[in-house]
Specification:
Layout: E1 8-13, E2 16-23, E3 26-31, H1 34-47, E4 58-59, E5 62-66, E6 70-74, H2 76-85, H3 115-128, H4 136-142, H5 151-165, E7 172-175, E8 182-189, E9 200-207, E10 210-218, H6 226-252, E11 259-263, H7 266-273, H8 290-296, E12 300-304, H9 309-318, H10 327-331
Parallel strand pairs: 8-11, 11-12
Antiparallel strand pairs: 1-2, 2-3, 4-5, 5-6, 6-7, 8-9, 9-10
Helix pairs in contact: 6-7, 6-8
């Protein structure tokens, strides 16, 4: 059993590699030796009632398509079911999941008579973020109003559905013959939440041609500067990076290497590099200095990256269409 993930089982013997991913009563068996795979499948069939569905095409609502370029993962059927369930199949499409610079307030607008529908919609959208990293931030924003949802909150949630309708074919393409190297990106907005002035952290990790992990989450502290907000976001990314490295090591048994995480705040990078640079950061909680330890131990390299034009290029790696058109062109 993998130390990083209790649902993953790995068998390594000589040049034979066997992987089993188990979720309740659903299972994926893969590896580099067909004989070992068949042997394991037969052994399990003697003890359990099993049904072989062949090469994976759908797993827990995730659709996997094998192409000449690699594997394309999407949730088109699930997205269509959401549009039908919430009466948005004939709605007009939107180019973005959220209106630019939108600031939702907790007590602004009329209360919804039936908040259950709103909660069901948000919960369904959260599951869709498994293959749609570009809606993570928008879904994270509307999920903050589950307790007392109002009309503007519902309108923002429906806009996400309008965006999904116009981008049903979007998904993640994992190309063959690409260099298997983990790299990350982190960012944060400073005091972006007008309700409590908390910042929002975000990160995205790529392996090869597409993203394997991403998150958009509101910070649990009020940052006193953009540097602090970015520093806290970098620590959050570092925690995910450590787990991903362990998981990849369990699967591939590769040697340790330094993972590059890109950040657009030079002050946050210098803070992580310089253990003496603490005059203005004494108030930062100890747990947020996790990134500093990993940088000094050379497990992580925090490097600078420009925002603006390069942002679209970063997310193009995370989200592609089957015809491999860029995200920027799709949104024009």
């Amino acid at each position: 059993m993998s130390d990083a993930d209790s649902s993953l089982f790995v068998k390594l013997r000589s040049n034979v590699q066997l992987l089993v991913l188990l979720y309740v009563d659903d299972m994926i068996i893969t590896g580099n030796d067909e004989t070992e795979i068949s042997s394991l499948r037969n052994d399990l069939a003697l003890r359990f009632d099993m049904k072989n569905l062949g090469e994976v095409s759908c797993f827990l609502g995730l659709e996997v398509e094998k192409t000449e370029q690699g594997y394309f993962m999407t949730q088109q059927a699930y997205a269509r079911s959401l549009l039908d369930r919430f009466g948005m199949r004939e709605a007009k499409t939107k180019a973005t999941p959220m209106e630019p610079n939108l600031k939702l307030k907790k007590e602004e607008g009329k209360m919804l008579k039936n908040p259950k529908k709103y909660r069901q919609l948000v919960g369904s959208l959260i599951y869709l973020t498994i293959t749609r990293p570009e809606i993570s931030y928008s879904v994270g924003v509307i999920s903050q109003f589950m307790q007392e949802p109002r009309v503007p909150h519902l309108e923002a949630a429906k806009r996400i559905l309008r965006y999904i309708k116009g981008s049903l074919e979007y998904g993640l393409l994992y190309k063959k013959n690409t260099k298997f190297v983990l790299e990350g990106f982190t960012d944060a907005d400073w005091a972006g939440d007008t309700n409590d002035r908390h910042s929002t952290s975000g990160y995205c990790f790529n392996v090869g041609s597409a993203a394997v992990s991403w998150c958009s989450k509101k910070q649990d502290i009020v940052a006193l500067s953009s540097t602090e907000a970015e520093y806290v976001a970098a620590t959050m990314a570092a925690q995910e990076c450590v787990w991903l490295k362990r998981l990849i090591k369990d699967i591939l048994h590769e040697d340790e290497y330094t993972v590059e995480i890109k950040c657009d705040n030079e002050s946050a990078i210098k803070l992580a590099l310089n253990p003496v640079f603490h005059a203005r950061t004494k108030h930062i909680e100890v747990r947020h200095h996790f990134i500093r330890e990993k940088v000094l131990n050379e497990e992580i390299e925090l490097t600078g990256v420009r925002t603006g034009a390069q942002v679209a290029d970063i997310f193009t790696k995370a989200l592609v269409k089957p015809k491999f058109q860029s995200l920027r062109k799709a949104l024009e």
